[in-house]
Amino acid sequence: MTLRRSFVFGLLLAASAVIVAEETPNANGATKRIVILGDSITAGYGLDPKEAYPNLLQAKVDDAKLPYTVANAGVSGDTTAGGLRRVAWAMGKGADLLVIALGGNDGLRGISPEETKKNLLGIVAKAREKNPEIEVLIAGMQMPDNMGPDFTARFKAVFPEAAKESKATLIPFLLEGVGGSEELNQADGIHPTAEGQAKVAGNVWKILQPMISQ
């Protein structure tokens, strides 16, 4: 999928804005917790927090009558290194499932794909130190073509490789159907609109739902 040039600056904007640990009570007497460790896309930059995809996932969980609370641990501008530093904090209230939705800012800042992969594996390892039984999902991310074919290919490969090596579950591309779409991104051409966030929620739910319905 070809992403528009404006996406090159994607998650770098609003780097100083922080939205963390937004948690919506579960309607079904939740006994389990899903933590989504992410950046501005997860935080719902530019939108009401209720329109961010973690909150939309909570609604899907409630409609399916599943006993999970979804915690939004999204920080605008965050990288995998930042996620590695704060994953233990994000899981402070416990977590049965962790979604790692980080890496976009790494690529846009020119951080080597090898370093990004190392950090992703580190996040999984730290999560399992706190809960050896935790289920982990790693959300794939892609760079636009003008980042260069070598870097773009290496970056895209990081996420399936990290998922395979850590025995985590892969979400192939977090922004599938959203990245590069004028209609589904805000005026900055970067952050998803409410409709775009709904599509992101669908991308995650497609992989998440079978795991938590067992």
What name does the CATH topology carry? Answer: Rossmann fold
**How many structural domains?**
1
Helix/strand-derived category reads: alpha/beta
Beta strand count: 6
Order of helices and strands: EEHHEHEHHEHEH
Shape: globular
CATH architecture descriptor text: 3-Layer(aba) Sandwich
Could you give the distance between the termini?
A: 33 Å
Name of the CATH first level = Alpha Beta
Strand order of the largest sheet: 1-3-2-4-5-6
Low-confidence stretches: 4-21
Residue-averaged pLDDT, rounded?
89
What is the percent of helical residues? Answer: 40-55%
**How would a crystallographer describe the biggest sheet?**
6 strands, mixed
- Beta-strand level of the residues, as a percent range? 5-15%
CATH homologous superfamily designation = SGNH hydrolase
User: Counting H and I runs of at least 4 residues, what is the number of helices?
Assistant: 7
The Rg value, from CA coordinates, equals 16 Å
